[in-house]
Design brief:
This protein is α+β, with helices and mostly antiparallel strands. The chain has helices spanning 26-30, 61-80, and strands at residues 10-20, 37-42, 48-56, 88-91, 111-114, 122-123. It has one domain.
């Protein structure tokens, strides 16, 4: 995984995730997935870690919706086994459902952001 993204692509904020401070590294769990995403660490309450899930919008809105759906469902499945303590989707739960109607108002990303990831940010390839 590359820790620094050097292009000025548009990124969509699709979800905010939370795990226990001692939970396994999300980047290690998702390292083999071939999706263009960033897990951006953000401020969290004590004892927890939070990440914004950003997806590269260059591949289109439908791709962002499908990738969000796949990533969130994969993480939720892992959490159900007990291997991802305190996993919670803080924002973006709507992506757990398969995104059939992309023209519906609730199928828009939470936000669009232009970013150049800082060191320590986790990337999918």
């Amino acid at each position: 995984m590359n820790a620094v993204r050097r292009d000025a692509s548009q990124w969509c904020l699709m979800a905010t995730l939370e795990v226990a401070e001692g939970a396994p590294d999300l980047s290690a769990i998702l390292t083999d997935l071939d999706f263009d995403f960033i897990l951006e660490p953000i401020q969290a309450p004590p004892g927890l870690r939070r990440f914004n899930l950003l997806l590269n919008e260059r591949r289109g809105r439908r791709r962002c919706a499908l990738v969000a759906h796949r990533l969130l469902n994969a993480l939720q499945s892992i959490a159900r086994t007990g291997d991802l303590p305190s996993f919670r989707i803080v924002a973006g739960e709507r992506w757990l459902a398969y995104p059939d109607d992309l023209d519906a108002p609730d199928m828009m990303p939470i936000a669009r952001v232009a970013t150049r990831a800082a060191p320590g940010t986790t990337h999918g390839s």
